[in-house]
Amino acid sequence: xxxxxxxxxxxxxxxxxxxxxxxxxxxxxxxxxxxxxxxxxxxxxxxxxxxxxxxxxxxxxxxxxxxxxxxxxxxxxxxxxxxxxxxxxxxxxxxxxxxxxxxxxxxxxxxxxxxxxxxxxxxxxxxxxxxxxxxxxxxxxxxxxxxxxxxxxxxxxxxxxxxxxxxxxxxxxxxxxxxxxxxxxxxxxxxxxxxxxxxxxxxxxxxxxxxxxxxxxxxxxxxxxxxxxxxxxxxxxxxxxxxxxxxxxxxxxxxxxxxxxxxxxxxxxxxxxxxxxxxxxxxxxxxxxxxxxxxxxxxxxxxxxxxxxxxxxxxxxxxxxx
Length: 322
Description:
Layout: H1 2-21, E1 31-32, H2 38-41, E2 51-57, H3 64-69, H4 72-88, E3 92-100, E4 109-111, H5 127-133, H6 140-149, E5 160-164, E6 167-175, E7 182-188, E8 191-192, H7 196-199, E9 210-213, H8 223-232, E10 237-239, E11 242-245, H9 272-278, E12 282-285, E13 291-293
Helix pairs in contact: 4-8
């Protein structure tokens, strides 16, 4: 009996040592910013109308110069502008919260492209069809960052997350006039939406709602609304008769670079408004407050996903002649 008791004590001591040696479970790093009245911001949100849930993350330990350039107050101005723009299109933006906390500085700046998995566009297909064959793939660093920042929730894959970061860099190939010689181009983005039309299912479902913000538009307050458009309409930089490209600058609609804020509809408007209302990120709250979600993507969320039916545009690729 004495041996048994001794053995039990030894096991208990060993177990205790193991428990002591385990790392402590960290509490949530993110806390809601109390100075921002979320309820007041959402006072216009009504049950039964198409709605999008959005959360905002802004690290408390960003470098001082970044805070001066991209203040949280500026992000909130852009969010309020986005609410107005989408309200005119019949969609409500519901702010879940604005959170701040200490973020590991190794995630302040990200190169988000997996260079080994990318190649130039041959130009035989349009960019939407080409993306199905060659979808964008996140870098391991970027995926780790987003999985660290975005807290687990049952509605992760239906929620949009606006994440402020000091630098977000995207890679693509730029060819000469004959399409023979290609250079790797790295662009510093002001906002990046990681849309389904370019990624499909290469982004894990839990973090597919991520949007990064690295610049503040103090004139038009348009960046957030524009990036939301990539996610919600699932279209690139395009406007009416102008087919998508990496960059289009004109005084057109919301989805091109310029001062335009329009979300056009119908075939002439490339079905932007109609695609918006079909987005899987939209829901209608019933009388009990339960969310009744739109249908989810059927073929990974690429532009021609059958979710959109005939609300698509057929256009030619941009083949460079050799």
